[in-house]
Write the C-alpha cells for this entry.
Amino acid sequence: MSVRIFHIAANTFREAVRDRVLYNLIAFALLMSAAGVLVGQISIGIERLVVVNLGLTAISLFGVIIAIFIGISLVSKEIEKRTLYTVLSRPVHRWEFIVGKFFGLAGTLLVNTFFMAIGVFAALLYVGHGFQTGDGWIGVALYFIILQFLVMTALALLFSSFSSPLLSAVFAFALFVIGSFAEDLRGFAGMAQGLSRWLATAAAYLVPNLSSLNVISSVAHQQPMTRQLIASNSLYALAYTGMALCGAVLIFERRNLK
Amino acid sequence: MRPSARITLISTVILLGCLVTSGFVLHHLDKLRSQATLEEVLYISSPKLLKRLSLGYDGLLADVYWTRAVQYFGTKHHLGSREYNLLAPLLEITTALDPHLTVAYEFGANFLAPPPPYGAAMAQRAIELVEYGIRNNPDDWKLYYNLGFIYYTELKDYGKAAQAFGRGSKVPNAHPFLSVMAAQMAQHAGELQMAQMMWTTAYQSTQDPDVRANAITHLRALQVDQDVTILEQLIAIYRQKTGRWPSSFSDLQAAGMLRALPLDPLGQTYKLVPGGRVEVREPDEFPFITKGTPPGYVAPPLKFRPSDRGPS
C-alpha cells in the first residue's frame, strides 16, 4: 500500500518538475535580490523587515497558487489523458491514488519552500550582515506556511475530485480568501442572533482558518511564538487536511469514471 | 537564409523596435502629464479596509506604505513643497497595517511635526501618531523620546515634554539621557544645551545614515547659532568700549577679547559684516541655522554632506 502511494507521489513530483513548476524559484530569486539591494535605497529602516515580509509573503502566495492550480488539475488531467484508467486497472485503490497525488504535490511544495527559505536567509544575511537570535522564529513561520499548503492542496484535491478545473480553482481560491478572514468571520458570528448566529458560527468553523497560520508580520518583528500556538496550529492543519482529503477520497470512490 | 531563421530575425527586430518605441512614447507621456502626479492620489484611505484587503499579508503592505510615505515626503521636500497633505494619512495607514513598525512612528513624526520646508507643520497629528505607537509598543523608549522631542521643539510645552521623557525613563533599557532630559525640562533648562543633548541622543540611538547625517547637521547648526550669538555679543561690547565697530576679528584679538580667529564647524573663518553682524562664509553648508546668514537668504533644498552619512 505505502509503496504504491509512494510511487504515485514520486510520479506526481516528477510531473510537476517536468511542468516547470520550480521555475517560480527564478522569479523568487530575482524578487529577493531586488528587495535586498533596492529597499535600502528607497526607504528608511525597514531593510530587514522587507526581506522577511516580502520573502515569506512570496513563499506563501507562490505556494498557494501552485497548490491551487496544480492541485485542481491533478485528477482531471489524468482523466483527460486517460492515464487514470491505466493506473486504476492495476492493483491501485482510488484512495491510494488521491493520497499519492496529495503527497506528490505536498512534496513539490516542500522542496520549493526549502529553496525559497534558503533565498530568504541568504537575503537576510546580505542585508543584516549576520543573523539575530529572533530570526529563528522565521522557521516557525515557514512551518506554518507549509501547514497552509497542506490545507490548500487537500482542498484543491477535494474540489478536483468532483468538479471541473475552472470551478475547482474558483472554489479553492474563494476558500483561501474566506479562510484569510476566518477570525473576522467568527467575530461577525458572535455579533449575530438566533439562527443566523448558529449558521454563521457553523460557516466560520467550516472554512479553513488560514489567518492563524499567518504569523509573518509577528516573526518579522522577532516576536516569539508560543509552544501552544505551534501545537494547536499543527493539530488544526493536520485535522483539516485529513478532513478535506477524506472528503476527496469519499467523493472519488463514488465517482463514475466512464 | 532558412525561412524559420528569417522569421526569427524579423520577429526579434520588430520586438526590439516595439520595445524601444514604447519606451520613448512612455517617456514623452510622462513629460506631457508631469502635473498629474501619481503620488497625490490615495485610492483607499481607510486603514481598516486596506488591512482586510491584504488577506493577512499586512506586514508587507505596511512596508510598501512606509516606503511610499518616505518617497512622498522626500520627493516633495526635494521640490521645495510646503504642503504635505497625504503624509499624515500615509503614516496612519502604515501604522494601522503594522502597529509594531516603530520606524514609522520615529521618523514619521519627524516628517510631520516641523514647520515647512522641513516638515508638514502637523505637530498635533505627529503627537497622535506617536501616542498610538506608544500604546502598541509601550516598551520602546525611543517613542517617548520622540514625543518629548515634539513637545519641546515644536510646541515649546516643557511640562508635557518633561512628562514624556519621564514616562520614557521608566521603560526597561531606556537611554540614561531620558531621565536627565526630564529633569532639565522640568527646570526649563537652557535651550541650546537641551537641543544639543537631544540631537546627540538622536545620533546615538540610530544606525540609519540619513538620520545620523540629519543629527550631525542639526548639531553643527546649533554650534553656528551659538558661535554667532557669542561673537555678536563680543562685537557689541567692543563697540561700547571703543565707540566703533571692529573692522575684523583681529581687532577683537588685539583687544584681548578673542584668543584666535573664530572658525565655523567646517573649519572656515566667520565673516564680519559692517554693522556688527557675523555671517558664515557658506550658508548653504549649514541647513537649519537661524543666525549667521546674509539678509534675505533663502536656504536651498536640504542636502546632507556625503561624509556625514558615514561609510555606506
